[in-house]
Amino acid sequence: MKPPKSYAILTQNNSNTKNLVESLLKQENVSNIEELQKLKGLLFSRSEINRFMDEEERHDIKILTRDTNQPLKTMSSGEQKKALLNYLLQQEPDFLILVNPFDNLDVATQAKLKDQLNDIASSRILVQLVSRVDDILPSSTDFFKLDGDTLQRYESPKDFWQANQPKRVLFEGTIPPPLSPIKVTEKTLVQLKKVSVSFDGRQVLNQIDWKIESGEFWQLIGPNGSGKSTILSMITGDSHKGYGQDLTIFGQKKGSGESVWDLKQKIGYYTPAITNKFRGYHTLEHMVISGLHDSIGLYVQPTDAEKQLAKQWLALLKLDHKKEDYFKDLSVGEKRLVMMARAMVKHSPLLILDEPTAGLDDASASLFVALVNKIAQESDSAIVFVSHRKEPQLEPERIFELQPDPNGSLGIELKP
């Protein structure tokens, strides 16, 4: 028996994914995939998990977790997706819509889910909407690209792959220097010696030794729950778990009377969630300048020197023609670049990037990674890049991996 079709739809940051998904679920006619019109489809996505989580928390209605005592919100991303997939398959749909199914999953969990989805594809229609070509299942038979609301069909898999291979990007010009360099006398910015951390009696980190020196470019990797966020929060001063540990940051041992505010002055930090805080009418110029004042928006009159610095950063990003545009009106990829400039505008001695490419399409991720590589090459800032995904164009000098163990994760340095 011939296996059913499996549709791969490559999305971009301008794709109207929501409209396409709604049309398929409502059994409406969608150009180029008319054969799905009268079939029953169900949705496998992060938004569906959030919907079931909301039902469970607000109305105490357990659907995905009715066979377990564990609340959905306490499960890992992998466990949540497994529960949703099992529930959807029990409904016996004609097809499943998968929206970026591998986002927020560690490498091992991605591999398991990919194998499971390939097995499902042998007996059920799958419609994949993914923003990264590496996430496309090998079982795919029909290939498309969603540009806005337009669904473009490719005549052959070869045409699709030739047209959509990620391209290497380079930024012209140089990284603008800071207005006032932040002085750090120590070569070693962060040092953890035999650091162990527990939560509610469960050991998370076990005897971690890690040293970050000025100008180094690190990638921090490890599965979900291995302790990456715990380490970052101890470095930034957002976790009390650093107290009582042999943890030294910028030459001061944790708990020796150091100022958390002084620490944050020396650390540039970016995670995509920060972008959501900037909902007001902030121009691109003011967004970059706000990084000099560590503020959500700009509430002081910028100096001529600050304006000139913002202009240089926006020129590097090829966004100088948009300096008076509102940040909220940018594409997702452009927002990430501006937020990166904001995080780096002071040339903080330590720059932490926490899952910075999550949710980006291939083109936007390539741009962001190119900017990170350039900053690593042209500045003295140490960089810690945290990611589940192996970004093919990222050029870290060193990799620190947290490897789970029954007694807490162990820290191992790997070769790039």
TrEMBL record:
InterPro entries: AAA+_ATPase, ABC_transporter-like_ATP-bd, ABC_transporter-like_CS, Metal_Ion_Import_ABC, P-loop_NTPase. Residues 190-412 form the ABC transporter domain. SMART domains: AAA. The keyword DNA-binding does not apply. Keywords: ATP-binding, Nucleotide-binding, Transport. One of its GO terms (molecular function) is ATP binding. Belongs to the ABC transporter superfamily. This is Molybdate transport system ATP-binding protein. The lineage of its organism: Bacteria, Pseudomonadati, Bacteroidota, Flavobacteriia, Flavobacteriales.
